[in-house]
Predict the structure.
Amino acid sequence: MTETSRRRYDDACATAHAMDLIGERWALLVMRELMFGPKRFSDLRADLPGISANVLTQRLEGLEVAGIVVRRRLPPPTPVQLYELTPWGAEAEPIFQALGRWAARSPLHDPTLPFSASSLFLSFRTMFDAERAAGLSASIGFRIGKERFLVRIEDGRLTAERRPFDTADAAFAGTAQTIAAVVYGGVPMAGMVDSGMLAVDGDRALAERFTRLFPLPDKADPGRAAGMEVVGS
């Protein structure tokens, strides 16, 4: 029996097949990092600091064989090899959103752990509250290291793209973890700005409002089983 066959569930359920495809450790996080466009191998390693080069190579190869990831080489003068999701691979985003909403309710979730830029903007697309954004039309830019992102809010919808921007109604500059602390951790934006950990340009009131558009769900009660009654003896 090969190592690959030992990993398979041999179960006709489509969920079991999904786990055959993406159930290996790090596979889902590799996909997460590619949700906003192609990346080089070195960029993926930088965004997933806990993964080794060997394991990342294995996961990319497995995802490529499964038809989820494709690699391509840019033409000269910059013949760089990039990895990106196939159109079918990108269709997995709602799975990430559902998992994110569900896991955010866990009492064990630790939001202080490292947070990548892709994680941050995927969370924005997941936790966005259209009611809180009623009547808002705005563009918000983000400078996170060498990456640039642009968020647009219009008609109760949010889009988030990794792309350069020249102008925006407001712009944040800082680490993904710092921005997440303001948006999800309740850390005052003004305090982060005063400490130099965060920079905010443009409409400061709009930036403040933006940080309040992503409420987290209530924590789950782990002490009660769903749909069951405890029968005394």
Remarks:
- The CA atoms of residues 155 and 179 lie 24 Å apart.
- The chain has a mean pLDDT of 91.
- The longest helix spans residues 53-65.
- The chain has two domains: 3-91, 97-210.
